[in-house]
């Protein structure tokens, strides 16, 4: 089954930002989308977020699965995938404004972050996208996560965190990258 999972971040929900826009775009390729609603996004709890991913994604991942995660959703997704006893080789994992370490400007997330683990992921394609000047997740933090995963970060010239209030109700660069994956094209 061709399935896209979108994992939102801190203080977001399934209707935030560019999530529904990308879900509509990928329908053309025969994909259904589950924009997973994580509980209590303003005070996220590690176990609740992990259990929600487990509920939605267990036994659903296959070689056609694509996962797009944003911000705190990135570390949540990586943690979930790292804890699978037998992780399938999913089609793609796209990490947007990702990080795996405590953030100086968001100490309220320290307990959540300290419980997560990150390890190599079994995916045909892994992309990391980051803004050059992200006030929430510093570009250097995204680059360190990419180094840990042995991938390169694609840095996008942007002063922000890819949020709707910054104009990101659509995300053309992401869609172009996704089309390359879906059409099996190289950049």
Can you walk me through this structure?
The structure is a single chain. With 187 residues, this protein is an alpha/beta fold. It is built from 6 helices and 6 strands. The protein has one domain (3-182): Rossmann fold (3-Layer(aba) Sandwich). Helix 2 crosses helix 3 (72-82). The mean pLDDT is 95. InterPro entries: AB_hydrolase_fold, RBBP9/YdeN.
Short account of what is shown:
By secondary structure, the protein is of the alpha/beta class.
SSE map:
Elements: E1 3-7, H1 19-26, E2 32-36, H2 46-57, E3 66-70, H3 72-82, E4 90-96, H4 110-114, E5 123-131, H5 139-148, E6 153-156, H6 172-182
Parallel strand pairs: 1-2, 1-3, 3-4, 4-5, 5-6
Largest sheet strand order: 2-1-3-4-5-6
Count of strand segments: 6
Going by CATH, what is the homologous superfamily?
Alpha/Beta hydrolase fold, catalytic domain
Average of per-residue pLDDT values: 95
Could you say what the CATH topology is called?
Rossmann fold
Number of domains: 1
Question: Helicity level, as a percent range?
Answer: 25-40%
- Number of distinct helices: 6
Percent strand: 15-25%
Residue runs with pLDDT of under 50 for 5 or more positions: none
- Cα-to-Cα separation, first versus last residue: 26 Å
Output the structural class: alpha/beta
Gross CATH architecture: 3-Layer(aba) Sandwich
The major pleated sheet works out as: 6 strands, parallel
Order of helices and strands: EHEHEHEHEHEH
Rg, rounded, reads 15 Å
CATH class: Alpha Beta
Bulk shape: globular
